[in-house]
Design the sequence.
């Protein structure tokens, strides 16, 4: 039963120079597709759920789907709660068996974020779960979270103190990365990743994976971004495949055929990211 500890998977990836794909799913079909890509390419995988997905599918249904679909999986997979400022959702997911959570306290003062994040880490440890921390808003609105405004960037010292004081397993810095689509190739502060890893030794999470190029991934992964988040690419693959099938196929009246078509497109999207992150064959 290789449902794995997120922190352990990501630390191993950092040590071996690849990144674990962390892909946000939205329903049963996308969960199945992402797990199928991981199994086929022998890759570890972090399946992410936004708070919106937890609410729309329902925590109990989501966890039951996860349990049923991972019971026979033979690669390490983990279930992660993405950007969550709501402590009650964090508590519910930890109690239900999520492998890890991102406590997103970036809207709080750093002091209050740190105080609450320590509590989240203590709570997670009781379940053997891991925690990702964040002190800066990553630009772009995703699943109702975040803002299109440029947020404040903290100094290296503040970020390092936060990581040390909270004991988070993974840290998500803002380095010019954006949730959603990039309008132009972003200039990413890759030095900040090297500095944070040098000072703390913990792996970094690269948010805003959709639309970055293979050269940007390989540089940031080599510096310690051992978890790379991808959400928009899945939504695009899902919507495009639905549209393509419904506008082009004379058999479009048959839902299972539509599901197969969409599942294939989402699996292919996951395969491409597994390969780009160097995760193929690492299970
Ligand atoms: P994208 O939607 O840009 O892929 O970002 C995903 C993400 O960072 C989720 O936390």
Sequence:
């Amino acid at each position: 039963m290789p449902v794995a500890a997120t922190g352990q998977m990501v630390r191993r990836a950092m040590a071996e120079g690849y990144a674990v794909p962390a892909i946000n799913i939205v329903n049963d079909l996308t969960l199945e597709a992402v797990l199928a890509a991981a199994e086929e390419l022998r890759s570890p995988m972090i399946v992410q759920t936004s708070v919106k997905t937890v609410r729309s599918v329902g925590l109990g249904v989501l966890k039951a789907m996860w349990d049923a679909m991972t019971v026979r999986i033979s690669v390490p997979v983990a279930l992660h709660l993405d950007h969550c400022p709501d402590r009650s959702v964090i508590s519910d997911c930890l109690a239900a068996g999520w492998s890890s959570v991102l406590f997103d306290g970036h809207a709080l003062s750093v002091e209050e974020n740190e105080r609450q994040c320590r509590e989240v880490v203590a709570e997670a440890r009781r379940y053997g779960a891991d925690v990702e921390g964040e002190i800066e808003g990553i630009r772009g609105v995703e699943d109702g979270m975040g803002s299109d405004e440029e947020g404040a960037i903290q100094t290296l010292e503040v970020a390092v103190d936060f990581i040390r004081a909270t004991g988070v397993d993974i840290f998500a810095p803002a380095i010019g990365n954006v949730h959603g689509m990039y309008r132009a190739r972003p200039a990413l502060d890759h030095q900040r990743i090297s500095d944070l890893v040098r000072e703390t030794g913990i792996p970094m999470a690269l948010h805003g994976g959709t639309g970055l190029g293979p050269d940007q991934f390989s540089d940031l992964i080599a510096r310690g971004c051992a978890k790379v988040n991808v959400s928009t690419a899945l939504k695009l693959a899902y919507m495009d495949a639905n549209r393509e099938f419904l506008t082009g196929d004379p058999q479009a009246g048959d839902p299972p055929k539509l599901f197969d078509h969409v599942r294939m497109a989402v699996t292919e999207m996951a395969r491409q990211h597994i390969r780009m992150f160097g995760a193929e064959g690492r299970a």
